[in-house]
C-alpha cells in the first residue's frame, strides 16, 4: 500500500490565509465577529490538538492496522473504494458527532469545539486535546475491521476535516437549494453551533447533510431569529487550560459527589443530566421552548 500524506498538513497555510481574509472582511463589515483573546484561545486549541495527535496518533494507527490484519474482507485500492470509504467515514462521523452531544464522556472532549461565543474560521481550529481519552477513535475502527486500509481511512478523514473548516463562517449566507439539500454548509453548521433552544443538538453532519435529514436531526436556519453561539453554560473566561479541561473537571466533581447508584450515570447520560434534576439538558430546554410556543396565541 502506498504511504499517504496527511492532507490537513498541506491545508494549514490555506486555513491561515482564509482566516486573514475573513478578519479583513470582518473589520470592514462586522468588527464584533472577531475578538482577539477568543481567537488566541482558538489558536491554542489548534496547536495543542496537533501535539496530542502526534503523541497518540501512532498508537491509534497501530490499533487500526491490527484490526485491518484481521479484516473481514480485503477492500481493493480502487476508485470506488475511495468513494465508499469517504461516504462511510462521513456516516461514522455523523454517529460519533451525535454521540458526542448525547453522551457526557464524549462531550467532555467535544465541548472544546463549541466553547467560543464567536463563529468564524478561527473557531474551526478549536479541536480537542483529549479525543484519545474520550475514545473518539472507536468510530474509525469498523472501517478497518471491514477491510479498508487505515491509510485510506485517515486520508478520507483528513479531507472530511478540511471540508468542515470553511463552513465555520458568517460571511456566507446561503448556497443554491440543491447544494443546501445535500451538503453541509455554513448555514447548516451555524445552527449546530447555536445555543438557541430551537437549534440545540441538531445538524451533526460532517460533509453530507443528508444524514441529518435521514435520521431526523436536521433543523434549518431561521433568518428572523439571530443565533447565539457557545455552550448553554458559557465559560466566562479566556483561560486556555480551563477551556480545555473544564468539562472533565465537572465530571470528576459530579461523580465524586453523587450517590453510588448514580455515579456512572454522570459519565454516559446527556450533558447537564443530574440525578435530582437540578440542571437542564438540551431535551428539557427544548421541551420548555416548545411548550411556550404552543401556548402562544395564534396571530
TrEMBL record:
Transmembrane segments: 12-28, 40-67, 79-96, 143-166
A GO molecular function held by the record: iron ion binding
Localization (cell): Endomembrane system
Superkingdom of source: Bacteria
Protein's UniProt keywords contain Transmembrane helix: yes
Family annotation (InterPro entries): Fatty_acid_hydroxylase, Sterol_desaturase/TMEM195
Protein name: Sterol desaturase family protein
PANTHER family membership: ALKYLGLYCEROL MONOOXYGENASE (PTHR21624:SF1), STEROL DESATURASE-RELATED PROTEIN (PTHR21624)
Cellular component, GO, one term: membrane
Any Pfam family the entry gives: FA_hydroxylase
Keywords: Lipid metabolism, Membrane, Oxidoreductase, Transmembrane, Transmembrane helix
Main location: membrane
UniProt topology in membrane: Multi-pass membrane protein
Domain called Fatty acid hydroxylase: residue spans: 82-217
One GO BP annotation of this record: membrane lipid metabolic process
Amino acid at each position: 500500500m502506498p504511504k499517504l500524506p496527511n492532507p490537513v498538513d498541506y491545508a494549514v497555510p490555506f486555513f491561515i490565509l482564509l482566516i486573514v481574509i475573513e478578519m479583513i472582511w470582518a473589520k470592514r463589515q462586522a468588527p464584533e465577529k472577531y475578538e482577539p483573546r477568543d481567537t488566541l484561545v482558538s489558536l491554542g486549541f489548534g496547536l495543542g490538538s496537533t501535539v496530542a495527535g502526534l503523541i497518540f496518533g501512532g498508537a491509534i494507527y497501530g490499533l487500526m492496522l491490527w484490526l485491518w490484519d484481521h479484516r473481514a474482507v480485503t477492500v481493493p485500492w480502487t476508485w470506488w473504494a475511495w468513494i465508499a470509504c469517504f461516504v462511510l467515514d462521513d456516516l461514522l462521523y455523523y454517529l460519533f458527532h451525535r454521540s458526542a452531544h448525547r453522551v457526557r464522556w464524549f462531550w467532555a472532549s467535544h465541548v472544546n469545539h463549541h466553547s467560543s461565543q464567536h463563529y468564524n474560521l478561527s473557531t474551526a481550529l478549536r479541536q480537542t486535546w483529549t479525543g484519545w481519552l474520550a475514545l473518539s477513535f472507536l468510530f474509525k475502527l469498523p472501517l478497518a475491521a471491514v477491510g479498508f486500509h487505515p491509510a485510506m481511512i485517515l486520508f478520507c478523514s483528513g479531507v472530511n476535516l478540511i471540508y468542515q473548516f470553511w463552513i465555520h463562517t458568517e460571511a456566507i449566507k446561503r448556497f443554491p437549494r440543491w447544494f443546501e439539500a445535500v451538503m453541509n454548509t455554513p448555514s447548516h453548521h451555524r445552527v449546530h453551533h447555536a445555543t438557541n433552544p430551537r437549534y440545540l443538538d441538531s445538524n451533526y453532519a460532517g460533509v453530507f447533510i443528508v444524514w441529518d435529514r435521514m435520521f431526523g436531526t436536521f433543523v434549518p436556519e431561521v433568518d428572523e431569529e439571530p443565533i447565539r453561539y457557545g455552550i448553554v453554560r458559557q465559560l466566562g473566561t479566556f483561560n486556555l487550560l480551563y477551556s480545555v479541561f473544564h468539562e472533565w473537571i465537572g465530571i470528576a466533581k459530579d461523580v465524586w459527589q453523587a450517590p453510588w447508584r448514580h455515579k456512572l450515570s454522570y459519565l454516559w447520560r446527556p450533558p447537564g443530566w443530574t440525578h435530582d434534576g437540578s440542571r437542564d439538558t438540551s431535551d428539557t430546554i427544548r421541551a420548555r421552548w416548545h411548550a411556550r410556543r404552543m401556548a402562544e396565541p395564534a396571530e
